[in-house]
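Tokens help. One example:
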Amino acid sequence: MFHNSKKISPESYLNGKRIGIAGLGPGCGVTHISVAVANYLSEAEKRKVCLFEQNRHNDIIHLTVALGSDISKPFFTHHRVTYFPSFTGTLPECASDLNCDCMVFDFGNDFRSALGRLMLCDIKIIVGTDAYWKKDEYCSFSNFTKDFTSLNSWRLFVNLGDVKRIKEKDGFAITVCCFPFEPDPVYPGKETITFLREAIFG
């Protein structure tokens, strides 16, 4: 379910564009959603994607091992997605040689600390949860969005959100939607693919 959704112009399609993903707080599933977005673009849209982990949590290392890739290398490719685990700083030199269609950045669970890098992205995805004890995070984000006049490029994904309560988060002036249950983000299912196509492309 989507609120405040605005049609995205064809010029914003993700050919060589950047998607930044950051969380409202700990435990909201930023890496899970980042991997799902990258694999959706790779498999459903046939893009060549780079996923950069910029959060120092090393979650992608666990994915690397699970996929049977060599952890001694600085990056690995699986299904047209090239993963850069725990990448911080400027883009690695090898990234310019990858000729990717799209770059996805996992900025971790503190969108404020990632704001400078997030603002450089064409599409900015903020991830939150629907837990009652996380309400303060949404209040903080609501205060943040008041400072912007145009938020067309922003999305708020409520991970495993309750559709009945999503209207409570309808005051951010950006597209707000419930990210569906996705047990395996490396192989996103039809519901996730349909959701991401609408959420990203409009």
In short: The chain has a mean pLDDT of 80.
